[in-house]
Write a structure and sequence with these properties.
Blueprint (H helix, E strand, L loop, with lengths): L1 H7 L2 E5 L4 E5 L10 H20 L2 H8 L4
Antiparallel strand pairs: 1-2
Length: 68
């Protein structure tokens, strides 16, 4: 099943000192010909994704994982 998803959706791994995140990109950005605009659209989508996630109970559950 993972092989099928790899073919359908490109994956991207983002890494900072604190976080490693692998995401599958479902949106087809190839329709945006200008690379700067394509990048801007992708970054905006990432920001929207994070904003949306921050409003979910899953984000609360995840952060509470670190309670000791």
């Amino acid at each position: 099943m993972d092989e099928i998803l790899d073919e359908l959706y490109p994956e991207l791994t983002l890494e900072t000192d604190d976080i490693i995140m692998t995401i599958a990109v479902k949106k087809d950005y190839s329709k945006i010909k200008d690379l700067d605009k394509r990048k801007e659209e992708f970054i905006n989508d990432l920001k929207d994704f994070i904003d949306e996630f921050s409003q979910t109970s899953e984000s609360d559950d995840f952060v509470s994982y670190f309670d000791f």
